[in-house]
Design goal:
It is built from 6 helices and 18 strands. By secondary structure, it is an alpha/beta fold. Helix 1 runs parallel beside helix 6.
């Protein structure tokens, strides 16, 4: 029997027969009240138990997803891995991290009939497909804090395009900036990033990183800072995310909560000064200096969890 392992977005074709085995396994602590379901036209199947089906035939297309059983919610940090086998080939799908506070269905795979064969398309938790693990962490914190995410408008990232950013923001720091913004953005109804002139609505890490790098390079020869235009964005924003090497007073005022990501060799000192002038404004700070870049692989999730708690608390007051 041949065995194949898919990554997010991968596909594999296997031969169709009347006994395609579909089974999901919980990874981790276990005990979550969850079940598989198959949705689609032209799908003939039998349910063996809550995590195990036999597909007899598919004439068109079907989606395999997991959902909480009854009125339950997913267990915290629950992970699921799906296997599909026709008796000759076994295909393992990428694991999916299921947010501990959500109760919506999570898509695992799509099956499409193609001339006597079955094409299997994978969906998982990594960047580029669905929602990243980091974004799930933030979204979970929002819901645990009882933030009504249906009322959340845009997360708006405002990028400092002053010339000093070219000096203070290297590629490693930029990667970390993009990861933070991506994690925050998925909890909102929309997203834009702008420097006051150029803008993007993409927050996949690679695309966001490219956009921010372009903004910084375009401002490399500029003297001073470009004036922030946050007042033009307030009506459609629930959170401002500033990316700067030196916080300004305008970032620390207004009615909209903000996250200020400070990228600089002296980011800690910049944040301490900004906290003095922030007053009662709802603001959370992120320090990105050489130490933060060096430790990002091991401590990013811990830092993000702390930031998520702060953001959830700020938004709870508004939503």
């Amino acid at each position: 029997m041949a065995k194949y392992t898919l990554k997010d977005g991968d596909s594999r074709s296997i031969s169709m027969n009347d006994s395609i085995r579909v089974e999901a396994f919980e990874i981790g602590a276990g005990g979550a009240r969850i079940e598989l379901e198959i949705i689609g036209e032209g799908a003939d199947f039998s349910r063996i138990d809550k995590m195990y089906y036999i597909i007899h035939n598919i004439t068109e297309r079907a989606t395999i997803q997991v959902k909480p059983s009854g009125a339950a919610t997913y267990g915290q940090r629950t992970e699921i891995r799906l296997n599909i086998s026709n008796g000759e080939d076994t295909v393992s799908f990428p694991r999916v991290l299921i947010d501990g506070a959500e109760d919506s269905s999570e898509r695992l795979a799509e099956l499409t009939a193609e001339s006597g064969r079955l094409r299997l398309d994978a969906f998982g938790s990594s960047e580029g497909v669905g929602i990243t693990d980091s974004a799930r962490e933030v979204r979970s914190k929002m819901r645990r804090a009882a933030v009504n995410d249906a009322e959340l408008k845009n997360a708006t990232a405002i990028i400092d395009s002053s010339s000093s950013m070219q000096v203070n923001v290297n590629n490693a720091a930029l990667d970390l900036v993009a990861k933070y913004i991506n994690a925050l953005a998925d909890s909102f109804s929309g997203f834009i990033a702008t420097d006051g002139r150029e803008r993007t609505d993409q927050h996949v890490v690679s695309e966001l990183r490219s956009f921010i790098r372009g903004v910084i390079e375009a401002g490399a020869d500029r003297v001073g800072q470009r004036r922030w235009r946050s007042e033009d964005l307030s009506a459609n924003s629930s959170l401002f995310i500033y990316v700067t090497d030196s916080p300004t007073a305008q970032m620390l005022e207004g009615d909209i909560p903000s996250v200020v990501i400070v990228v600089s060799p002296i980011a800690k000192q910049e944040v301490e000064l900004a906290k003095v002038t922030a007053g009662d404004h709802a603001v959370a700070f992120v320090v990105i200096d050489a130490e933060a870049v060096e430790k990002q692989g091991s401590e990013f999730n811990q830092d993000l969890a702390r930031l998520s708690d702060q953001v959830a608390e700020m938004l709870k007051e508004e939503y």
